[in-house]
UniProtKB/TrEMBL annotation:
Family annotation (PANTHER family): ATP-BINDING CASSETTE TRANSPORTER, ATP-BINDING CASSETTE, SUB-FAMILY D MEMBER
Residues annotated as domain ABC transmembrane type-1: 33-318
Subcellular localization, as worded in the UniProt entry: Cell membrane
Name under which the protein is recorded: ABC transporter ATP-binding protein/permease
A GO molecular-function annotation: ATP hydrolysis activity
Annotated coiled-coil segments of the chain: none
Length: 604
């Protein structure tokens, strides 16, 4: 957490730069220029209005009717231009903020879905809370607040320039006093309130997001909670999340109270001081009485312009907290991209060596790739070995040692195997020995460990995870997932549904366009059969099935695997049922002590 200091500015610029120097830079800069032109016009007119206000009072006090009406005329004329100018300025500022938000959201969402960062992000930074809130909320406030603040500062500078001239003409002491007063006030406010307010605002954003997420989880797991009758615990949990936000806000309010007390007292002075300073000249007849109003108007404008930091301090600290959150998020995404690049580099090196299988197989597993298979070191992170990955026509694992993402446990040691394209492999072993983790490594989700994984391109592999995943959408989209543009006819879908023993599914829900909360309305076994239907429909080169039939009876399971055997898809399954052995050629048995055995089954 940073104070509003140079590091904060650097972080701000690191996020902002990409837009102002990126592909939409001319559009963004053009809009900004237009806004600044409107701002200039608006500030110029403010000076005229202020002078005319003084004129009005002077004309009244001098009982000069002609001068009075002339001033009114100018006043109205200026207002006719001033009002639309101000409205246009606000519109364009908000519009530019919105465009920037679209751009930045798009960029963060793209990065979040690249290299499966949404899955891996917490492996790199376990403290990174609520990425959803950072994308939805923090980006919005960052773009809007940035523009507002930059323009407030710009307009303050303009106003200082414009109104100091007016004030200088009336009283130099006032200008000098103002500058000194504003500097002291700003330094004091930043020094005393800066750090705690940024910290509390940061914490508030996090706690609000935790609270919201707690409620979203209840909605997503409503049935399980209802079965467990876990209402009491869940409601206590949600309330306690709210209380955390509440407690923090109470602390924030106390600091705001102090800040407001200070700023109110501090901002009181401009309302009396100019009159005190100008009064003697008015009494002696050197200045007209309207000058008091003019001096006061100019004084207030200059004062609030110089005082922009103190005045917007609460907003600035909230903004600072938002910058920190976005910066952490961008850093974590950067680490993932960095790690992917390192793994790709490794794979290229392994490729060129391993025409060269000998180079890999001869080395002992402990040293095979440990020397080069590391993420480049940073100041804080020690070098960590990585599994190299490469693209090849068929799946093979070479001296694979697999560890959990944080390197705390080794799950599999020195595993070497190759899966021919017309073959099939069953992975079995006790619960928790690392079967699903092996699939994660093959999918490239986990890469902590050593050795090399060669596999076809990821788009040629279809994975069915242990927990069936039903997307939001129609039955047709469900079946097409994850290839939404696949050329599949309704007839093919009907046939496949028959094969997986769901012949009347479409009719039951009113056709393939039926849109349901599928994970709620289908049984677990039905969801597994629907997921299996995806494999049969898309016929990928490789299918990787993680206990994909665990909820099915033997008859249904056999029916699905027989259908799969009839296709050209090479498949690899994880499963506990012994009956599965009949549908595979090879059996890989993993043990809890990290060892493994490979057995041939029928027809190997
Ligand atoms: N994200 C994670 N970070 C650290 N350890 C993890 C993580 N996910 C799983 N593990 C641990 O890794 C080990 C292997 O998990 P895995 O899911 O591969 O087991 P499995 O053999 O598929 O078990 P099961 O048959 O019960 O599904 C388990 O001890 C698990 O607790």
């Amino acid at each position: 957490m940073e104070r509003l200091n140079f590091q904060g500015l650097r972080r701000f610029w690191a996020i902002a730069k990409a837009y102002w120097w990126g592909d939409e830079k001319w559009r963004a800069r053009g809009l900004l220029l237009l806004i600044v032109i409107l701002l200039l016009g608006y500030t110029g007119l403010s000076v005229v209005l202020n002078t005319q206000r003084g004129e009005l009072i002077s004309a009244l006090s001098a009982k000069d009717e002609a001068r009075f009406w002339q001033t009114v005329f100018v006043f109205v004329g200026v207002l006719v231009v001033y009002a639309p100018l101000l409205a246009g300025y606000t519109y364009l500022r908000d519009r530019l903020g919105l465009e920037w938000r679209r751009w930045l959201t798009d960029r963060f969402v793209t990065r979040y879905f690249s290299d499966r960062a949404f899955y891996r992000i917490n492996q790199f930074n376990a403290d990174l809370d609520n990425p959803d809130q950072r994308i939805a909320e923090d980006v919005r406030s960052f773009t809007q607040e940035s523009l507002t603040l930059v323009l407030v500062v710009a307009s303050s500078l303009l106003e200082i320039a414009a109104f100091s001239g007016v004030l200088w003409g009336i009283s130099r002491e006032l200008v000098l006093f103002l500058i000194g007063y504003a500097i002291v006030g700003t330094l004091f406010t930043v020094g005393v309130f800066g750090k705690p307010l940024v910290r509390l605002n940061f914490e508030q954003l996090k706690r609000e997001a935790d609270f919201r997420f707690g409620l979203v989880r209840i909605r997503e797991n409503a049935e399980a909670i209802a079965f467990y009758q876990g209402e009491e615990q869940e409601s206590t949990q949600v309330k306690s999340r709210f209380m955390r936000a509440f407690d923090n806000y109470k602390r924030l309010l106390k600091w705001q109270l102090g800040l407001n007390g200070l700023t109110n007292a501090y901002e009181f002075i401009p309302f009396v001081l100019p009159a005190l300073v100008v009064a003697p000249a008015v009494f002696s007849g050197d200045l007209e009485v309207g000058k008091v109003s003019e001096a006061q108007g100019a004084f207030i404008r200059v004062f609030f312009s110089l005082n922009v930091i103190v005045d917007r301090f609460q907003a600035l600290t909230a903004f600072g907290a938002g910058i920190d959150r976005l910066h952490d998020f961008a850093e974590s995404l950067g680490q993932i991209e960095h790690k992917k690049d390192a793994a790709e580099l490794l794979a290229t090196e392994s490729d060129s060596e391993a025409t060269g299988e000998a180079a890999i197989t001869e080395a002992s597993p402990a040293t095979a790739t440990a020397a080069d298979a590391t993420i480049p070191t940073t100041d804080t992170v020690p070098p960590q070995p990585l599994i190299a990955q490469a693209t090849a026509p068929q799946l093979s694992l070479q001296h694979l040692t697999l560890q959990t993402p944080n390197y705390q446990r080794t799950l599999i040691e020195d595993l070497t195997l190759e899966l021919d394209t017309d073959s099939s492999l069953l992975v079995a072993g006790p619960s928790g020995c690392g079967k699903s983790s092996l699939l994660r490594a093959i999918a490239g989700l986990w890469n902590s460990g050593q050795g090399l994984i060669q596999r076809p391109e990821l788009k040629d592999l279809l994975f069915l995870p242990q927990k069936p995943y039903m997307i939001l959408g129609t039955l047709r989209q469900q079946l097409r997932y994850p290839y939404p543009d696949a050329d599949i006819t309704d007839e093919q879908m009907h046939n496949v549904l028959k094969t997986v023993n769901l012949p009347d599914l479409a009719e039951r829900f009113g056709g393939f366009d039926a849109d349901e909360e599928w994970s709620d309305v289908l049984s677990l076994g039905e969801q597994q059969r629907l997921s299996f239907a995806r494999v049969l429909l898309h016929s990928p080169r490789y299918a990787v099935l993680d206990e994909a039939t665990s909820a099915l009876d033997r008859h249904n399971e056999a029916q699905l695997y027989e259908a799969l055997e009839a296709t050209s898809t090479t498949y690899l399954s994880v499963g506990h049922h012994e009956s599965l052995e009949a549908h595979h050629r090879w059996l890989l048995r993993l043990a809890e002590d990290h060892t493994w055995q490979l057995h041939a089954l029928k027809g190997a």
